[in-house]
């Protein structure tokens, strides 16, 4: 079963890589693109890492990622010519499909959750659910494979370089934890938190999760570091229930997700897809709710974890 899961995950990564490589080819063929070579090289390199990263030496993977960073640094990755959308056809299709357009979204969640309860697990579940719901969406909308390819390219280019942030930030969290960043944070904060003060410990734990999630762009990456550095010595060691404190710390970190452009999937992606003039409009809208939820998390952890 483990080998089957590994093979399925590898298959999904190869599919993603092939989509990225297809975008690289499209960009390369567009002679009007202002940074044709740099942009096509970026998507080609990213596609190679996704599709063949496990089959080439890790050193080569690292060099490829550095090259991608250099291309981004010198602003060589830009959105190019996208497939034209016939507004009249799109409007007619929208009226014909109506609310059925939401069915694939709902089924995606149901399929993914359902498969996650099988030995295949959640990661494979998301991959299988994505393919199944894509087929269902094609049936509902009568979309052709070319339309799927065009829209995939459109989304990839609109999201741009921020699409790789989740992978890089997740890897950074593992590196930070292995490097002992949690211990450094614990030693540094011990001089500011009065010994035995549960409330200050809870505040530090929640705010630490929020701030570190804002830096990392990923609550999961921040959780291991902040829990090791703050949660265990200043909350759990003082009698806090690890289950309650840990669960609330994780969702407190998600408050930080609402406040940072580093959370590309949640904040940069909607701004890019909706072509917002202000790239931080989503964050500005979410900020008041995030502030309220941070206070709520502190109160809940203080009263429920002890």
What does this structure look like?
This protein is mainly alpha-helical. It has 3 domains: 1-74; 87-162; 164-305, no CATH class. The protein has 14 helices and no strands. The protein has helices at 2-29, 36-52, 58-73, 87-97, 103-116, 121-141, 145-159, 165-178, 181-189, 198-216, 219-234, 242-257, 264-273, 281-304. The longest helix has 28 residues, at 2-29. The mean pLDDT is 88.
> By helix and strand content, what is the structural category?
mainly alpha
Give the N-terminus to C-terminus distance in angstroms: 41 Å
Strand content: under 5%
Total of DSSP H or I helical runs spanning 4+ residues: 14
Low-confidence stretches: none
Concise synopsis of the structure shown:
The chain is mainly alpha-helical. It is 75% helix and 0% strand.
Structural features:
3 domains; globular; 306 residues; mainly alpha; Permease
Compile the SSE list and pairings.
Layout: H1 2-29, H2 36-52, H3 58-73, H4 87-97, H5 103-116, H6 121-141, H7 145-159, H8 165-178, H9 181-189, H10 198-216, H11 219-234, H12 242-257, H13 264-273, H14 281-304
């Amino acid at each position: 079963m483990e080998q089957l899961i590994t093979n399925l995950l590898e298959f999904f990564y190869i599919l993603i890589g092939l989509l990225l490589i297809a975008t690289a080819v499209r960009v390369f063929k567009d002679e009007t693109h202002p940074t044709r070579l740099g942009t096509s090289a970026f998507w080609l390199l990213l596609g190679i890492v996704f599709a063949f990263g496990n089959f080439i030496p890790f050193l080569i993977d690292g060099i490829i990622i550095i090259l991608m960073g250099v291309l981004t640094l010198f602003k060589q990755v830009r959105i190019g010519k996208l497939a034209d959308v016939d507004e009249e056809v799109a409007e007619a299709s929208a009226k014909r499909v109506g609310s059925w357009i939401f069915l694939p979204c709902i089924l995606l969640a149901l399929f993914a959750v359902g498969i996650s309860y099988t030995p295949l697990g959640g990661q494979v579940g998301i991959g299988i659910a994505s393919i199944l719901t894509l087929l269902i969406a094609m049936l509902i909308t009568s979309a052709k494979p070319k339309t799927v390819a065009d829209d995939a390219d459109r989304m990839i280019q609109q999201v741009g370089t921020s699409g790789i942030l989740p992978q890089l930030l997740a890897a950074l969290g593992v590196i930070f934890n292995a490097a002992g960043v949690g211990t450094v944070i614990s030693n540094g904060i011990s001089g500011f938190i009065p010994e035995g003060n549960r409330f200050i410990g809870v505040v530090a734990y929640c705010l630490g999760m929020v701030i570190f999630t804002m830096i990392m762009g990923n609550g999961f990456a921040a959780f291991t570091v902040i829990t090791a550095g703050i949660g265990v010595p200043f909350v759990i060691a003082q009698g806090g229930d690890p289950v309650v404190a840990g669960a609330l710390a994780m969702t407190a970190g998600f408050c930080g997700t609402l406040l940072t452009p580093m959370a590309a999937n949640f904040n940069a992606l909607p701004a890019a897809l909706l072509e917002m003039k202000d790239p931080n409009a989503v964050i500005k809208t979410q900020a008041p709710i995030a502030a309220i939820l941070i206070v709520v998390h502190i109160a809940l952890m203080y009263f429920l974890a002890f």
